[in-house]
Queue: 2 jobs
Job 1
Amino acid sequence: MYKISKSNLSALFAKIAGSQELFLPVRNAGQVNFAQWEEDAEVALDVLKTVKSPKDAFFPQSENLYTCMREKNKLSITPEELQNKDFVVFGMKACDIKGVDVLDKVFLSDPVDSFYAARREHGTIVALACNEPEESCFCKVFGIDCADPKADVATWIVGEDLYWNSLTEKGNALTEVVKDLLEETDDAKVKEEQEKIRATVEELPYMNLSLDGWDGNALSEKFDSPLWDDLYKPCLACGTCTFVCPTCQCYDIKDYDTGHGVQRYRCWDSCMYSDFTMMAHGNNRTSQMQRFRQRFMHKLVYFPANNDGMYSCVGCGRCVEKCPSALNIVKVIKAFQKQGGDK
Amino acid sequence: MQELISRAKELLADGTVARVLGWKAGDLPYNPEPAYFENADELSEFVYNAFCGANLSKYMIEASKKDGKTLVFLKPCDTYSFNQLLKEHRVDREKSYIIGVGCKGKIDVENIRKQGIKGIKTISGIEMSDDTDTLKIDTVYGAKECSYASAMLERCHVCKGKEHMVYDELIGESKDTVDAERFAEVEKIEAMSPEEKFEYFQKELSKCIRCNACRNVCPACSCRKCVFDSNKFDSAQKANVDSFEEKMFHIIRAFHVAGRCTDCGECSRVCPQGIPLHLFNRKFIKDINEFYGEFRAGEDAETVAPLTDFTFDDREPGEGRG
């Protein structure tokens, strides 16, 4: 275990950024999102939740796949280069790290997504424990301990210091880079802080949310429930929940007309959108109720059915905070509980 | 609130309305959701408090397609949107029973969070019957408080007024919440150099995640198929492909709702990235006022709006450009 004074963090960031790209929570026009570190960046480690999750670091909202160019009678196709430089994502919370586990299941299983795999290979994750979890958090429900995040390096802010503990080979390599700035210490302070965080977690309103009845086998009973007919009604069919979510992984592939060619890119898609998974024959979900149901069935039934019981919700609570109509996955889970019997 | 519930029950019971459109209590103190109620039992979950900012007018487009009348609760500012939708033949007045509800200004939990208040358990001072200027907030990190005004939505600081523009009956008192100049922010931007303006909007709009919440919540955005969703055009992009795209979406939207936007402020309320989108629309409103005389979209459902009218006295393009 090492530590560094908070007042010295900009030196730490400069040191990391000297050897590779560094992404961390930065305040821009009043909002905190993960962004590349620059000397004058307003780093905001005190903000619990970035608006968007950090999944962009591995699965950007929009990325080029290849470019077609027409020059006279010749057509050239240039594939986009894969990530080939190392980078660091600093300050990821335990829920968002679990979100990356979910993305790994999707993109690293056969057929492997080479764009994603390259980013995972070159990325080092520095986790940050959640000092002050909030009322919208429910990570514990998914077995996540926000006081003990697991990544390449785990860090804790306690008082005026940041504590640093390397957990993997990638973490050791990064620790070597910044070792001059760190001083060795024991983990007593961290242990104390962890107890404090865990005690706070117990007080949060969603901590006892029960997932009883939600699993890979619940397909028909959940799918056919009449509850969906009411639950979806306030939904505006915007993509906020899906775009702030650390685990939503659906994407679309589109062409951008550059005037003298085509840029083929992929971008996040949202199951809330009317043309989601539209095919030549039309669309297999024709109502907003069906699209709304899809999101929650995917997270709580289809995903666990295909991934050894792993849910694709990590309880980060961003949808709780951001849905314009105040809908969210917690309300859905509770609505089914309230119904009783028909879990 | 009890008065609203009782009246709703009466109107359901005597068959005047087939359903009620209002707000349902959430599972946190600040997240009530728009909801339909079809019987007296369901109305036990009805709520109307300081967090019921959602403008229900747009939901009346769908409600107008249902059988029977829908009772809808509208705040004074919501009635401007309803009138505008009426003018555009998007809602059916015959299918609507409007109870105009009093409003003391609506609040946004984001504005409470911005003051460093987190881990919210309960908030008091949000009921219509509460006569207080202070919100008392119990959090997992201790008792906090902030002023009601500091938590209010931007639109309430420049409130249109306490009058409902269309209604069948009125319940509840409204409060004067104005403490800012409506066009002050627009004037600040007008005074900027072109470079400063560009930088300002670039910074704000670079946060856009193209979630379409602003568009989908907007009562003026009621096209059945938005050009940005149509797969028949290149404009149907789901992400910002370059830095021009993010501006194009918002600028086109602002042009499309110009003269029809009632300045209800829903776009800014719902933006997950806190982009002050209402400023675009308010600039148009200010220009229209200056060019054609004071005009408020939604004040009534009949007046021909300046941008859809032609007179020989209309300004010529470029005229009076300073």
Job 2
Amino acid sequence: MSNEPAVSIFNAANIVGMVSAAMAVISAILSYLSYRKSSDEYEKNKKDNFIASINKCMDNVYIELSDYIKNYIGKKDTKEKKIVRERIVYSLESIRINLSGSSYTGSDVDDKFGDLSVKVSDTTFEINFEKSMHDLSQIKGCITNIKNILME
Amino acid sequence: MSSDNIIKYKFAEKYTEYPGGRFERLGPFSGEDFREKVLREIFETGKKIEIDATGVVTSFSPSFLDEAFGTLAKEYGYERFLDTVTMFSEDNPKLTDKMHYYVKRAANVK
């Protein structure tokens, strides 16, 4: 029988190596979990910001349209009237492009927004004040409806 | 199809630089007016039209697009519409997409 000491896997160097490896694995797992959490939060914030910006743009369209009705409905097409209408149509177009390019919204929002944009556009060409005020109340309902879908 | 059957239509020169709203009763250069005076005949005679909207000053409103183009897509079918009407603008590359959006919506195409 040899007098050489048995080689144990539990010598000091091996223990240090195993502990280091375990710590590295734990550290990698923690880093991954942290990355996942911040990535999820980033996506959630991005979606919240997107929805908030769409809501704000729709509110602006509503405010522009109500001002337009107050100032121009029933009056002939002047330069100023054309410019304000153009601004409203441009705002609708910007919202449409943002919605259709987004992965956060589906075809239900697209459909509702299509209805809204046609309704707003029709109202800017209306000649009867009472009719346009009636349209405005329907538009308010459409905007609220889209906001509710976006929040789901 | 021969090129004789494709009508090249410069919208700003031949019709208006300021397209209007939906119905004729609401003002000039409406979607209804453009549909009945220009597009209807194209569909009835089996010709094709290529609308060049370069130089149009104010935006095409959703009402105009819905009434002029969407109504025909609903009436003649989306495929026939696509085969008959093309539209572009050199100063507004998004116009084609915008027109198709309102046409699809009117023709109930997903």
